[in-house]
Write a structure and sequence with these properties.
389 residues; 3-stranded antiparallel beta sheet; 15 helices; 8 strands
Length: 389
Amino acid sequence: MAGRPPLRIGQHGKITREYLGSGVWVARCKIRDADGVTRRIERRGPADEHDKHGKLAEDALIEALLARRAPSHADQIALDTKITVLIERHLARLAEDGRSPVTLSTYRFAAGKLAKFVGSVRVDEATPARIDAAIRSMRAAHGATMARQAKTILRGGLQLAVMANTLSANPVRDVQPIGLKRRPKGATALSADELRDLLVRLRADGYCQRNDLVDPITVLIATGLRRSELLALRWTDFDETKETIAVTGKVVRVVGVGLQRTDDTKTDAGRRTIPLPRFAVSALRDRRTHPYFGESTVIFPSTAGTLRDPNNLGKQWRKVRDELGVPGVTTHSFRKTVATLIDDEGLSARIGADHLGHSKVSMTQDRYMSRGRVHTEVAALLDRAIKYE
């Protein structure tokens, strides 16, 4: 014979009352808590000679049950819950999980733009076709990058509805990938000869000297660091004896706070120690003797002695690169250049990934090592193998 079915999570059983004497009653019941365990709970009412049936004790018990039950009705996700509400909850969960403030700021900005297209759409209206239309509208209005961000936060928000058993499946999973209207050009890699010429021009340029671009660009050329990593370098990270620099953080701008140095890197592989070529060691040694730069905590501070903005460094570089004979070369080009030189030297992609701080070797191979080059050694190999006359 089948037993009594278990209580649903958050549900309580029948309430019983017992008179203890002197006007005091106790009310008891069982409740199945959020962890699935059924527990007995009881509350006593105040001594009251007019309470003939234990109503005060039951009222106290019901109040305790309401406080114990989670989630509250306001937190429940129903079919008429707006998608924008789910997105806000998803972003709050990401903040609780320690997601980067910069990432959260980016997602919140994208969520604000997305609200124009899904602001009044509810969970039961979130069909794949409607989500796809919203994402395509985002791409048309704000570009492919923000459209991908919108898709990411939509997936996270609607997953909460799946977890609440309001939806059986996440509709975002059936949305087609966001294609690019044109292939991104990407950063331009420089040859070793071009780098040598650039270093000479860099050191002789008056604008670069006045705006403290010589040493930062020199170290970028020598390391392939990201701008945010470069400007987070401290003198304590530089080991002059071993001729290495440790990458231990990055500079980010947090909305409402400003520039901050965080000990987080873009990936776990981002925390690394990089060997420096002699020209970079020499530049840093000379810089440390400077009465202003050498006294700062970070190696490349702003003119006010505070953290330097990565975006401002990029703007200054774009202003002078034409005069230096490298139009179209971005600060990220030096990162790609280092990867290409590693590849040219015959070093493995694993070494390149470790040096650049990539968590996946495939990223180094596919995105940073130059493709489409003419490999004459392949023809030589075939000549040796076939020996055709």
